[in-house]
Amino acid sequence: SQTIHQWPATLVQPVGSPLSLECTVEGTSNPNLYWYRQAAGRGLQLLFYSVGIGQISSEVPQNLSASRPQDRQFILSSKKLLLSDSGFYLCAWSPSAAFRNQPQHFGDGTRLSIL
Amino acid sequence: AQSVTQLGSHVSVSEGALVLLRCNYSSSVPPYLFWYVQYPNQGLQLLLKYTTGATLVKGINGFEAEFKKSETSFHLTKPSAHMSDAAEYFCAVSERSSYKLIFGSGTRLLVRP
Fold this sequence. Notes:
The complex is a heterodimer of chains A (115) and B (113). Chain A has 115 residues and is mostly beta strands.
């Protein structure tokens, strides 16, 4: 069966510091991968998605970037964190591009607090 | 652009009462439809989905949802609420040409003893 791992679970970082959040998927190949942010009391905002290695689509201009160095690895990064980057970050995967009616499956999230 | 509306940011029911969470979408072409549940400090868990076929869809934990094309709705119901159902619920749609999900703003379900 397929599993998704996200780490760390919680992170406290000072303003201006770098960020790296990692997500990996097991048990499937060539998944679509997604990064979302959920601000306190709000819905989900899609940040990035990827349909293959090295292919990244950005949904909103911001202080963050994403990379997909391997088929089942998705990394969210920032060079300098802002206070507004605080939130709950969720990684998700869905089956490959051929199956567009399939749901997304989510990791357990990373709670990021910027001080 | 596709949008999803969840009526009521908070819904409160008594234990044992009917749960009804509302979801409406904007597309003129029936999309794919999903309901997710999120417990505090956790990711989203898929409750059920509608893609094609039978319009009444059964999911996990006793939930079901009915796709009504004429009303562009996909409301979530459960006949009898349990305390463990207290969580946030998200409706999501995916256009048939897209890999992306559009989420509603969520409804927090409170279950009173």
